[in-house]
């Protein structure tokens, strides 16, 4: 199956599963390609090809599954069982051997898996405030690439009260949010 075919199948499965559970906001189901897929795919410009991705709070698979379709090795961590069943179906139907799904809490998972700062990066979209993501990841010294909304400046100020970090902001190409690239988190 070609990449474009995988994205078409992804949209189809997302619409089917959304009749049974809330994976994304119902109002966004009419524009899955731009609102979710292209929004997630824009990370590909910034993430080096030689890293493995750990996607936090993967939910419906954004951005983790999109990046797996585009060729990265991705581990999706999701604590809600029914969402991991959806991710497992995506892995199978889209033939993604480079995608690993973990059904567990992030804090438990990160204490069990070896995370290497040179080999791994973290991603997340619509998951948690910046400071909460830092609480999970600060001991790893990995870089982060996060899709955030227009309130990112407030989140940065809050996070700076507890953590030191370098960051770059990239304007989203698909909405009024940002990609925040974080390094040297302490």
Low-pLDDT segments, ≥5 res = none
Fraction in beta strands: 15-25%
Write down the overall geometry.
globular
- Class by helix and strand content? alpha/beta
How many H/I helical runs?
7
Number of strands: 7
Measure the end-to-end span: 42 Å
Going across the major beta sheet, what is the strand order? 3-2-1-4-5-7-6
The major beta sheet can be summarized as:
7 strands, mixed
Mean pLDDT: 95
Layout of secondary structure:
Elements: H1 3-18, H2 32-41, E1 52-56, H3 64-69, E2 74-78, H4 81-93, E3 99-103, H5 106-112, E4 120-125, H6 130-137, E5 143-148, H7 152-160, E6 166-171, E7 178-183
Parallel strand pairs: 1-2, 1-4, 2-3, 4-5
Antiparallel strand pairs: 5-7, 6-7
Can you walk me through this structure?
The chain has 186 residues and is of the alpha/beta class. The chain contains seven helices and seven strands. Strands 3-2-1-4-5-7-6 form a seven-stranded mixed sheet. It is globular, with a radius of gyration of 16 Å.
């Amino acid at each position: 199956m070609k990449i474009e075919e995988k994205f078409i199948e992804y949209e189809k499965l997302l619409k089917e599963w959304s009749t049974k559970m809330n994976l994304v906001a119902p109002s966004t189901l009419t524009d899955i390609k731009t609102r979710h897929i292209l929004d997630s795919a824009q990370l590909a410009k910034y993430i080096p090809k030689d890293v493995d991705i750990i996607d936090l709070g993967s939910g419906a698979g954004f951005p983790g599954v999109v990046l797996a379709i585009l060729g990265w090795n991705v581990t999706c961590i999701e604590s809600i069982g029914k969402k991991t069943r959806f991710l497992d179906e995506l892995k199978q139907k889209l033939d993604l051997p480079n995608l690993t799904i973990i059904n567990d809490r992030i804090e438990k998972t990160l204490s069990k898996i070896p995370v290497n700062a040179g080999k791994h990066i973290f991603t997340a979209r619509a998951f948690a405030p910046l400071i909460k993501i830092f609480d999970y990841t600060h001991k790893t010294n990995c870089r982060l690439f996060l899709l955030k909304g227009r309130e990112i400046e407030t989140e940065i100020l809050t996070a700076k009260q507890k953590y030191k970090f370098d960051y770059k902001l990239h304007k989203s190409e698909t909405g009024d949010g940002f990609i925040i690239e974080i390094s040297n988190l302490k």
